[in-house]
Amino acid sequence: MFVSYILSKVRSYMRYRETVRELSLLSDRELDDLGISRFQIENIAREHAVA
Predict the structure, then answer these.
(1) Closest of 50, 11, 13, 45 to residue 26, by C-alpha
(2) Distance of alpha carbon 28 from alpha carbon 11, whole angstroms
(3) Largest CA distance in the chain
(4) Measured between alpha carbons, how far is 28 from 16 in angstroms, rounded to an integer?
(5) Mind listing the pLDDT tens digit for each residue in 9-23?
(6) For the whole model, what pTM was predicted?
(7) 3-state secondary structure string, 1-51?
């Protein structure tokens, strides 16, 4: 039970980091097309990791 909890937290963190990395690679223009500003990247990634 504890191991599965830890694994789920690790997977969530990995999803968070991947999302931050991918969004950070986009240009400001591409982010604007998506309706995202640079300062929102971490919040969006956090929401994505939990979902």
Answers:
(1) 45
(2) 28
(3) 45
(4) 20
(5) 999 999 999 999 999
(6) 0.86
(7) CHHHHHHHHHHHHHHHHHHHHHHHHCCHHHHHHHCCCHHHHHHHHHHHHHC
